[in-house]
Task: structure prediction
Amino acid sequence: MLPPITEDAFLGGRLRLRQPAAGYRAAIDPVLLAAAVPAAAGERVADLGCGVATAGLCLLARVPGVAVTGLELQPPLVALAAENAILNGYAGRLSVAIGDVAKPPAELAAGSFDHIMLNPPYLEAGSGRAPEQELRRIATVEGAAALETWLACALALLRPRGSLTVIHRADRSHRLLAALSVGCGDLAVFPLWPRQGENAKRVLMQGRKSSSAPLRFLAGLVLHDAGGGYTAAAEAVLRDARGLDL
Result:
């Protein structure tokens, strides 16, 4: 049974997304994630832990001709993702498989994707009080699959020289780098600054499978101005569907 839902606008009204009224709700992270994926027409993209398909639909709105396959563990979110694909006219370009990154289903074959994007749970199991609401708990707290399991799954699904893009907590960057350095090169670290002069809480990280290019630290993106509104650069991504160049 689906929980109570709301219908919300994304990308300045280009997208309408149905999502649970309580529990985990998509905000700006999946929009920023999708903006950073360097996909082109004719390419295949996998979105691991896709939720209601926010990132996948944002990517489809920006890149004509790309195809997205989502993987999601929670059946209510899979159902909403399918509804959202139909609602926004992308049913032929977005599909969602139900399953776990620890053992992805046959629809996600090894080495078959040009790009992978993922927004894994931010909280390590046992690191604090877990949310009581089940949808939110599963989305935000690691279960049996640790962060490294998510990244290993992503690398396995990716073709050689394909890109992997992840958004995560900045204070876990060392774990991201350690895991990705094994199978990726050309790693780019792109901080997301809350305001000018404040420490980053989120980071985008991107790499290329089997590449030997060196690590790059980029200037990143300042999200809010002194008045609390979005900066012009952030607004261009969040409202106007502009991409981020990593």
